[in-house]
Design goal:
Among the domains are: about 30 residues; about 110 residues, no CATH class. It is built from 10 helices and 2 strands; from the N terminus they run H-H-H-H-H-E-E-H-H-H-H-H. The protein has a two-stranded antiparallel sheet. It holds the Pfam family DUF4129. InterPro entries: TgpA-like_C.
Length: about 220
């Protein structure tokens, strides 16, 4: 029996392992390894495919509830933004600083107190101006008027008269007294101031037409 000579190119175990290690160190094998992006894309694909699996269908009820809740909350926030802005604007006008073209954040009660103090001092000009400001601020505080910023005394009187029709003439006279002292520089008198006090008291007692309920006979 003739024995074949050993292949001179066949490596032994140690030599084969060394050749394999050298081959794996070739850069082309490192370039072929999956990157972090490949792993991420694989995870996303598995997640999307899992949404359509039978197991995911059993959880659809909970997911639908979450979606409906989010939609309702978003709708409520939208309504609050759209509906709340005009109310905030009115509140800013009612308690804000602008009043008859000047910055003034005093309440109607504070303006009346300041007007009375000036009246006791005999400063009828300041007392008259302050008293009409008290009338205007009181109308704002009661939401009887909602004038634009910088509205004049006459504009406020006309708007108030639409709700307090019985005091139309008194309101117009009060606005005229304010304009005469404030802008025309006519000296005020005690009688004129007392007339404003009477108008202020009447406005405070009056009820807007929208608040009056007609009782059927």
């Amino acid at each position: 029996m003739i024995r074949l000579a050993e292949d001179p190119f066949a490596p032994d175990g140690d030599e084969a392992r060394r050749w394999a290690e050298q081959e794996l160190q070739n850069p082309r094998y490192a370039d072929a390894k999956p990157t972090w992006f490949d792993y991420l894309a694989e995870d996303i694909a598995e997640f999307i495919s899992g949404l359509f699996s039978p197991e995911a269908g059993q959880q659809a009820g909970g997911a639908a509830l979450v979606i409906v809740t989010v939609v309702i909350v978003a709708a409520l926030i939208t309504v609050l933004i759209l509906w709340g802005r005009p109310r905030a604007s009115r509140r800013a006008r009612r308690t804000g600083r602008d009043l008859l073209g000047e910055r003034d954040d005093r309440t109607a009660a504070q303006l009346r107190a300041d007007a009375e103090r000036r009246a006791r001092e005999g400063d009828w000009d300041a007392a008259t101006v302050l008293r009409f400001r008290a009338i205007a601020r009181g109308l704002l505080e009661r939401d009887i008027v909602d004038p634009a910023p910088g509205a004049t005394a006459q504009a406020i009187a006309r708007e108030a008269a639409s709700a307090l029709g019985d005091l139309r003439a008194e309101l117009a006279a009060a606005a005229g007294a304010f304009d005469e002292v404030r802008y025309l520089r006519h000296p005020a008198t005690e009688a004129g101031y007392r007339s404003l006090v009477a108008v202020d008291d009447a406005v405070g007692r009056a009820r807007p037409a929208s608040d009056i309920q007609v009782v059927p006979a």
